Amino acid sequence: MQAQPQKHYSTCTLCEAMCGIEVTTQGREILSVAGDKKNPFSEGHVCPKAAAIKDLYDDPQRLRQPMRKTASGFEPISWDDALDSVATRLHAIQNQHGNDAVGVYLGNPNAHNMGSILFGPYFYRALNTHNRYSATSVDQLPHHIVSRQMFGHQLQIPIGDIDHTDYFMIIGGNPLASNGSIMTVPHIKRRLKAIQKRGGKVVVIDPKKSETADISCEHHFIKPGSDALLMLAMLHTMFARNLVDADELLEHAPDLLQVESFVKDYPPARVSARVGISADEIETMVTEFCAAGSGICYGRMGASVQTFGTLTQYLIMLFNMLSGNLNRRGGMMFTQPAADTLPHSGRGTMGKYFSRVRKLPAFAGEYPVAALSEEITTPGEGQIKAMVIGGGNPVLTTTNGKQLDKAFEQLDFVVAVDFYITETSRHADIILPPVTALERDHYDVVFHNFAVRNSAKFSPALFEQAPETKTDWQIYLGLAERIDKLNDKATEHYATLWQKEPTGVVDDMLRSGRYANGEHNLSIQTLRDQPHGIDLGPLQPELPAAVYHGDKKINMAFDYFMADLVRLEDHFFSPASPLDQHSAEILYLIGRRHLKSNNSWLHNSPRMMKGLLSDGKGQNPRCSAQIHPADATRFGIQDGQLISVTSRVGKVEIPAELTDKIMPGVISIPHGWGHNKAGSAWKLAEQHSGVSVNDLTDEMCLDELSGNAVLNGVPVTIAPINAG
Ligand SMILES: Nc1nc2c(c(=O)[nH]1)N[C@H]1C(S)=C(S)[C@@H](COP(=O)(O)OP(=O)(O)OC[C@H]3O[C@@H](n4cnc5c(=O)[nH]c(N)nc54)[C@H](O)[C@@H]3O)O[C@H]1N2
Ligand SMILES: Nc1nc2c(c(=O)[nH]1)N[C@H]1C(S)=C(S)[C@@H](COP(=O)(O)OP(=O)(O)OC[C@H]3O[C@@H](n4cnc5c(=O)[nH]c(N)nc54)[C@H](O)[C@@H]3O)O[C@H]1N2
Ligand code: SF4
Ligand SMILES: [Mo]
């Protein structure tokens, strides 16, 4: 007899917005995915990507069993065989070359996977290697460092209280495409419109008039990478015009007013030409922001992942603080999560050790990923001989991907925890494919902490786990236990972990958390009983409790952050400023996101790729180089024409797309494309391969304070490729 269709309430884990979804299944088939109207947080909102969930589940090319590379290609093997072989090889390599000979790279999907977050660490601990890397250092590393220094914990990041604010300033974020980042916020469009409806303002500062700028009150072009200068001038204006409103915060940040002495040399008139925004406009923005009642100054990808990303994020925090908006309703607030991971996670050790070759600083146990290829290719003690890649595709997503691709070829052993044979996992000797998101229990242990409203939701696995499948946590725990055994370490505690599962850990956190008693009585069971999730109210003032420093005071860390002003002066104002050299030929490269794409990995979904024209020559209009018509004229380029884009490290050929939405002097290319490498296996993606922008980004060019990559503001040259 055929099973009846069943409805389940779950959560989309593709981006940070945590949309509730209604999934209809029949037997083990997914029939449909729609927005869950009864989810109190997302209220039925989903974006087009929700439809990709079914495609991912159905994708015939998604791996369902472990694979071993042989002379004639990948062949399936059993889980026991796969896990035993991986553990034995990693152990042997560490035995021969030392622990650091095994490197680990963790990609973005791990942040959306409670099993990886809670149980992955047992595996890294068993490996005990310094060579750990992740997508953090091509992304939000500056936020962690700012929070570590100022509030004492890398994850204690204030979130914009968007539903109550009067002024929302967005610097280098495009939430209409990304659905928000370090701001978990379903249905951002509705919320941005609501600000304007209640008389508030939304202002976007971006080298592109983005989709978000299109629905905002005001947009200012800014020269890529100059945001730190803008922030210095904004802070200067605040003092010069007596707009500082910090009385309440001084109790928690006694040194706050000393900021004045660091910004005195940055009047708007001095920075204006470098930033590309007039002094008048800068002053008006600051005045209006400070008069607004409440305001959020929010900076993301574009502001973080650039030459002065860490300084910029720090200055943004100071701007929120000095305008009285930290810890204020409608400003930047700390969240009150139901399952608080902070007391159980590392606060973020920094400055303790440095990478072997380039001496880049480790933060929270990880080196900047820009150091990865040289750590593989440079001989000597501590050289990486084997890599574990967990849910990431660094060949397409990290700087100088082509060089990393080549470096991977020389490794003795590679293992990938991934369900696709990607541009990266094709290097693997063994691939361990976990189940897809809806097939495992889920509680957002990261993104509830970054949400614009407090809420809690548990999404049980859709189906009983099929035999011969494993979740990420089962893979990591299985490897950890085997490696500990091989190292003659105690393994008794594993029995408890297998039984407890990550869900049990979340249950413990809920039961010891702030909503454990009283009205909500939170536990996994109470959440199971409320499958749409529950609302826990708006964000609340949380100082001084939010501060993890012993004295409960916010640490201004001037010595650390403001030290970077020397580099900034040099970069923008020295007679030898790189910005003045060859300035006529250079364009500055930035990135962009598309609503139907997700970093490197939704390009095999028929629903996401539908309607994408391809001219049969491998061109892909979604992967185009956007340039301003004035630049096109200057270089003799027609709309749609193939152009070459060249940086210090590489060259790509890509069709030009002319648009006056981009600032003159700037070129925008999205990342995650370049599915044209022999040996990867995603049929649809390969038909629309595009090129990888990270064959242009430069691993030697860093935000030096943090070691974070520079993906925005990369100097490039362009030229038309003439047909024939
Ligand atoms: N030029 C440029 N480069 C960028 C960016 C940019 O803006 N510009 N953005 C950067 C940012 S913000 C990020 S976060 C990185 C992302 O960089 P990465 O994390 O390296 O890349 P993803 O494409 O997210 O990798 C996803 C991989 O994980 C696999 N996967 C998906 N779900 C799971 C799962 O549940 N478990 C496991 N084990 N695997 C899974 C997919 O099959 C895919 O191979 O890219 C960065 N790169
Ligand atoms: N659809 C979709 N959604 C996603 C993702 C995806 O790949 N696709 N990825 C997810 C991930 S991993 C992340 S981290 C988030 C990122 O989410 P966002 O931070 O919103 O990132 P983007 O959408 O890339 O927007 C960055 C904006 O910064 C601008 N910009 C570039 N350089 C500069 C600069 O120097 N200064 C300023 N002021 N602006 C600049 C760009 O023009 C762009 O509009 O998105 C997440 N959501
Ligand atoms: S915005 Fe789209 S991708 Fe993000 S959680 Fe919601 S449905 Fe999923
Ligand atoms: Mo990201």
Automatic annotation (TrEMBL):
Record Gene3D superfamilies: 2.40.40.20, 3.40.50.740, ADC-like domains, Dimethylsulfoxide Reductase, domain 2
Entry keyword annotation includes Metal-binding: yes
Keywords: Iron, Iron-sulfur, Metal-binding, Molybdenum, Oxidoreductase
Xref: Pfam families: Molybdop_Fe4S4, Molybdopterin, Molydop_binding
GO molecular function annotations of the record: iron-sulfur cluster binding; metal ion binding; molybdopterin cofactor binding; oxidoreductase activity
UniProt cofactor(s): Mo-bis(molybdopterin guanine dinucleotide)
Lineage top rank: taxon: Bacteria
Coiled-coil regions listed in the entry: none
UniProt domain 4Fe-4S Mo/W bis-MGD-type: residue ranges: 5-61
InterPro entries in alphabetical order: Asp_de-COase-like_dom_sf (IPR009010), MoPterin_dinucl-bd_dom (IPR006657), Mopterin_OxRdtase (IPR006656), Mopterin_OxRdtase_4Fe-4S_dom (IPR006963), Mopterin_OxRdtase_prok_CS (IPR006655), Prok_Mopterin_Oxidored (IPR050612)
PANTHER family: ASSIMILATORY NITRATE REDUCTASE CATALYTIC SUBUNIT, TRIMETHYLAMINE-N-OXIDE REDUCTASE
Homology family: Belongs to the prokaryotic molybdopterin-containing oxidoreductase family.
Protein name: Molydopterin dinucleotide-binding region
